[in-house]
TrEMBL record:
The lineage of its organism: Bacteria, Bacillati, Actinomycetota, Actinomycetes, Kitasatosporales. It comes from the Bacteria. This is Integral membrane protein. It comes from Streptomyces graminofaciens. Residues 172-181 have a biased composition (Basic and acidic residues). Residues 172-193 are annotated as: Disordered.
Amino acid sequence: MAGTDGAVTAEDDDALYVLTAALLTPANFPSALGDDYPEACSALDLAPLADGYGLVMGQDSDGARWTVVIDDVSLVAVAIASWDCGMEYDLSPDEDSVVAALPGWPLAVAVAAPGVPAPHDPAPEVAERLPLTPPDTSTWGPAQRRLGADEIALQWTTWREQIDDDAFVRRAGEDSGDRPSPEASAGAESGEGGLRAGIRRVLAEVRAYVDSPPPLGRVRSSFAPGDARTLRADGPGWSMVARTDDIAFVLLDDEPGEVLPVGRGPELPGLLESLDKIAVRPN
């Protein structure tokens, strides 16, 4: 996320100094909030509308943290794209687009508005509900696991360069020299039978998604170089990141900090192709 260096939406006591914004849509929602779009919406007590929302996070004139939820998704998307390009953009939502004003921030924000008190939660009599707080990522768990998968998707080349394809064959290949199945490849690379069981469970659940579509946003497809797509799938206790023309990486709640590669083998290409067909894509 990027900020606006203290843009102001109004010139009165109700002014919101906008610090940053995020999308909350089926294809693009903060992974820290949930494994799928409905779960992420539930974290903010919002109905999972098909068109999604924009989340505008800032401080009021007293320094209190607020998250303004708007239904003008395109406005927030343009603002984020501008900030990512290093351009200024005054994100000033129209009052008619405001769905809710929620106390607190659902995500960690590292900046603060100048000229106002330090960020703090609004007083209870003003907030009228418990303030939103970012998920705890200080210890390994679902939120940190999903954020780890986000990082792999963003830095795919860096992670991929650490994997030697020959290692899959050398350590897991059979006497015939055939490339091993995804399960064998992952187990060999991790070097432990227990992890093999975890990979088998994840792949079985991913295959089940193809036959019985999961909640919206559990499988997402985004741009990748060439004709490939980057796939992201999540489920109870696991996350998977893959390229349709390459391998996959799996993270498990039961294996803190471990990133487990899954070789292509004979099965993974077809599975990824099927997943891409049911995945949600950005508009």
